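Record 1 of the preview.
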Amino acid sequence: MQRRGSGILLHITSLPSPYGIGDLGPEAYRFVDFLVETKQSFWQVLPLNPTGTTYGNSPYSSPSTFAGNTLFISPDLLLKDGFISEDEIRTNYEFSDDVVDYAGATEYKNSLISTAYKKFRKSPENLIGYEFNIFCEKNSRWLDDYALFVVLKERFKGRVWSDWPREYRDRNKQVLEKVKSEMNYEVGLVKFSQFLFYRQWYSIKDYCRDNHILVIGDLPIYPNYDSADVWTNPHLFKLGDNKKPLFVAGVPPDYFSSTGQLWGNPVYDWETLMDKGYKWWIDRIEHNLAISDILRIDHFRGLVSYWEVPSGEKTAIGGNWVDVPVDDFFKTLNRHFTNLPVIAEDLGIITPDVREVMERFNFPGMKVLIFAFGDDFPTGDYLPHNYTGNCVVYTGTHDNNTVRGWYRQEADKLQKERLSKYSGIDIHEENVSLELIRLAMRSVSNTAIIPMQDILSLDENAKMNQPSTSKGNWLWRIGVEHIDMDLKEKLREITEIYDRDS
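->
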């Protein structure tokens, strides 16, 4: 990431489509064309894993760290590739163009995938059948267990895996082989749906590569407890005899929260991970570097030391810091991956040991401009004059308000005054997004990433996520009408002026 460039943060869910949610179809390709036309170098997305209503459809809470979100499968591409017919693609759903309809899109797309699978099973001895078999063989290390997990979750009516009957909880080999035999159709359907997702994802990824656009993916540090990952690898986590977590992850009290944050994810058993040569992590990073070019690691500090809280605590106050064998871990990764392309999410209170690790392994951190005008002005790390080249500057992230929303709702009078003085012009609601984009683009940071909402100067109604809430998030979608010639010309001009054109 040493070259000077810029890009846009826009998750797949937010793309236009007539099917209730953004997908990997024609509008994804048009967005790549938009990136090319405006001289961008990067497309940053959020995690591509499956989501669910249990966790508010958050892409950071998934039943698998390897599987793809089948809601992103494009009906248009299924039709084009002959998996479904024109009659089958038609829907009676009245989907909104403005917000994601997770429930409606799930029902509609599951039906389409089921139809495609039935058609596939009638003639599996063709080129698609060959592709499918190669996919299943290549991904067997996670796909077989994930398919079983999904099928068993359905059988046991959504119960957490540790509450399944003991023989299923503890993965009795004979019992699982019997499930594979008895539920061969259902297991095959899960695998086929993953095949369709990855077939479409690799196609758009190739299109990005051919157009010199690098994809920045996102890697949550912890898997969900109720996931195929933990069910399959309970020895890699601090679990008790009943397979329930002994400790859960979170962060300690700080100025954001007097009781800290209690996430509930199981924490790793790093001694066991080390004994196993970090194979699970190596497999995970290898998989994610196949589907993206650069990885943003969420909560990076947890790979240096992490806050573990005894299970059953109501808040994160009673936790403790636990060190990770960070040098051995990253040295091992560097033996497997050349110039590990990582962005360290280092927002919040970061201790010197984390900074030392980032510097030692040359991992760029994140600078967020809406954090720059608080009480530490003008010496704060988020102000552009304090940057070094090896960082990634953002106007905001998926967890923040939009720039315009921040200015309207959150920035106080003093912050607004500081922003105007720093910019050298009178800042107001109508121009604040553009001026923060200019600050990001003109900075010495090698990489500038702008959320699409800020490119469009949208207000608080367009924010993606309100942390610590589980409803009303991950819903925003861009309209086709949002991208016009004026927008393209303005963004291209800014990109060229500040020497970020690829």
